[in-house]
Batch of 2 targets.
Target 1
Amino acid sequence: MLNQKVYLDFAATTPVDDRVMKAMLPFFSEQFGNPSSIHSFGQQAEAAVEDARDTVAEGLNSRASEIVFTACGSESDNLAIRGAAIAARELRGANHILISPVEHHAISHTAEQLKHHYGFNLEYIPVDEYGMVNPNDVAMRIQPDTAVVSVIYANNEVGTINSISEIGKICRQRNIPFHTDAVQVTAYLAMDMEALQVDLLSIGAHKFYGPKGVGVLYIRDRTPFLTSQTGGGQETGLRAGTHNVPYIVGLAAAFIIAQEEREKRISHLLPLRNYLIEETLEMIPDAILTGHPIERLPNHASFVFKDVDGNNLLMLLDVEGFACSSGSACRTGDPQPSNVLTAMGISSEWALGSLRITLGTQTTFNELESFLRVLPKAVERCRDQTAR
Ligand SMILES: *Cc1c(COP(=O)(O)O)cnc(C)c1O
């Protein structure tokens, strides 16, 4: 039965590409050295880590000294906000944090902790009905005592892509550190650190066919920064801990493939996604596409259905063999409407009925056709149950 299941949740995670797996394998057993060791085993491992660092640095149009390997996208987000905010307070008494209300919890919960336990002032930038930040709203709210600004590059729940270079320009003019969470976009958008004018950027490998449990934080040279994880001096003291060599190698391999195959992947995904969106809106009454209709990730379709229990819908779809999400994989079992949808002005009678379908390299037209045969009936059944 299991092999008949259709996976439509690639924004939650992706399978590891065979080529990535192959690149990783020798570093578990044959080349197992600790990169911090002086001897040849260590040197070999260190060379692999530094090769990976060069690959990522080049792909981001940045320097190797600006690449910090972490244990996941969440860690990169945590490290970025905490590291920049605390350093800015020490350096110039900055006490104000500015973020969008549609950030991943790795950003918003970190910022809330900095507010409640460290005394920072936290301000949210408004978003429009598509969950998009207007750069002018950043310009209006940024202050001399702003410690750090963070705006998500592309939203995981609704797929909307923000104008990061425009926001970056505003922050750069004011000399305020700017972070963006790019975990969802690495597979689909070129990321040039000079063009984007960001100071900090988070990446997580498992969203682009790399392994779970490894990420990158780009930290622009000379950005005031305090490490969160102290210990051995790894990553030039910015992130202590023995390097996870196979996973770092895997991240770099997946990153190269993502760059090389980006256009190919996008041209595969776009027609599929557009077909899915058009058919869904046509077949199902009281359905709205959430997120921006054009400025959205090429693999991302997300909807709200009025008077539907989203978790109920997910279970019905799973029984039928389709794995989807309500938006964020971290929110399973929570009956509250998503704060991302609420920030976009969507009322709870709609927001509770959210569905996210995210496509991947393996997704086929046939899979979507069979999905679309099931979805309208599943929504109808949920509505019957809600009415009862
Ligand atoms: C998945 C995701 C994260 C968290 O990354 P992990 O590697 O799973 O910790 C952070 N931000 C966004 C936008 C994501 O999609």
Target 2
Amino acid sequence: MSSLHQARLWALFTVLLSVFSLAAQAAVPASTYVGMGSSSDAKDNVTVSVNVPSDSTDSLFYHFSGPSAQTWAAFGIGHQMSGALIFVTYASEDGNNVTVSPRLGVGHVMPQHTSDVTVDVLSGSGIVNGSFVVNAKCTGCRSWSGGSVNVNSSSQNFIWALGPSGTLKSDDTSATISQHEGYNFFNLNLKDATGTGGVPIVSNSTTDDNLNDGPGFGGHVNPGVAFHAFLMVAAFLVVFPTGYLALRVFERVWLHWGVQSFALLMVCVGSAAGIGVSIRQSLTPSLKSGHQILGLVVLALALTTWTVGLIGHRIYKKTKTPAKIMKGHRVLGPSTILLGLVNCFVGFNFASNNHGVIVFGIAMLLMFIIVGSLTFFNRRRKMRKGAMNTPAAFNFREGGMESGNGGPPPPLYGEGGIPLQSYANTPPVYR
Ligand code: HEM
Ligand SMILES: *[C@@H]1O[C@H](CO)[C@@H](O)[C@H](O)[C@H]1NC(C)=O
Ligand SMILES: *[C@@H]1O[C@H](CO)[C@@H](O)[C@H](O)[C@H]1NC(C)=O
Ligand SMILES: *[C@@H]1O[C@H](CO)[C@@H](O)[C@H](O)[C@H]1NC(C)=O
Ligand SMILES: *[C@@H]1O[C@H](CO)[C@@H](O)[C@H](O)[C@H]1NC(C)=O
Ligand SMILES: *[C@@H]1O[C@H](CO)[C@@H](O)[C@H](O)[C@H]1NC(C)=O
């Protein structure tokens, strides 16, 4: 074989090899999420792409990037901090590469480094053009103390978070990080990401399953949860109490019926939203947490109260006498509202929203003051009206002692009445 021949064969071989390796790379299945991180600039995006190697039961490959203008960037497997396996990335001590620290979320405190999970940082990683870039293989990362990943899931829950801006340079995987400035939630289809193992290749032209989710930085609100909370808080804090006033102060049964029916509708839609997000986003999908159980009880109570009220009013219309079951309505109504308000507190607690607990507490106090004082003044007004019609009041009027508004001014003391002494100049002398 001539050397020319050999060279040609080598060239062919190399071409074939690179074609094969390209094909192999393309064959690495992955599921990718791109979300807006600290700004709409592409370098500040948060990208998470995961590959599930089918020939392994305890490893995953991932590509991650986030803005390096923040002290740290992280993503985690799980639907909230608690129970999540979190991969925190920050600059290495020399500032040229990245340190990746696998940590376990234990609540709203700094996640703790775990040595049960190993992360191999692979080529292509570093701090590139204003972004942390991580290509990695993790081992021991399919289940951990507190949780596991469901590689069969078409919507596995993930979270990401970004630290405050600045630089944190450390090679220590237990380095102290300070609380995030922003975070968000997303899902990845891991079923579709299963196959040949390898680091996922994310090109900016890929249109993957899960591109972007709108702003996440600062606006860390779960829209489904927010919709649920808005409807429930509005119903129990504003609409139900208004319906109460419609009856007790404005004394309009039809208005009471209309307002309470609207509030009930809000509660039904809000409950559906709550059940929906609980199941779809795996926020206690068994519906067995205190907030969820109490919520279902309140929903049942609200429906019962409404039905009893309707039946009671029908009976009253027919018989012209108050129905006995209206007593039930008068107990059920306020209890439902009270329990609903209690469950708003429990809900804010369930979502670990301390701010919400405080704001809601103040708003609830205001509501009680407003409803209470309107009811009180209305009652007093009625009692006064009632007082005018008592025998004593008639007697009073008969006696001709007209005083107050409309009557003649009282006689001036000193004008033929009791002589007045000027206390200002000469104090009275007691003998
Ligand atoms: C020093 C470390 C950390 C502290 C002190 C901390 C603290 C907190 C606090 C107080 C909240 C509630 C905030 C609110 O109600 O808006 C929260 C929520 C959250 N954090 Fe962190 N965090 C830390 C690190 C991380 C990391 C590394 C991640 C990585 C993904 C993360 C992801 C989240 C997410 C997704 C939420 C919302 C869901 C949930 O309630 O758990 N956090 N964190
Ligand atoms: C960062 O470290 C990884 C693993 O050691 C290496 O493959 C990569 O080339 C490094 N990146 C830079 C920019 O040095
Ligand atoms: C960094 O960004 C500049 C301009 O956006 C671009 O020209 C350059 O190729 C980028 N470098 C890398 C390593 O991506
Ligand atoms: C995922 O699916 C595979 C086969 O399709 C099965 O062997 C495995 O037990 C499943 N895992 C879970 C967590 O459902
Ligand atoms: C990816 O983005 C870079 C700049 O950020 C650009 O130069 C490059 O052409 C893009 N690649 C594709 C495939 O769109
Ligand atoms: C960065 O994120 C924004 C918002 O999600 C998205 O519109 C944009 O296409 C992303 N940029 C890249 C390069 O993926």
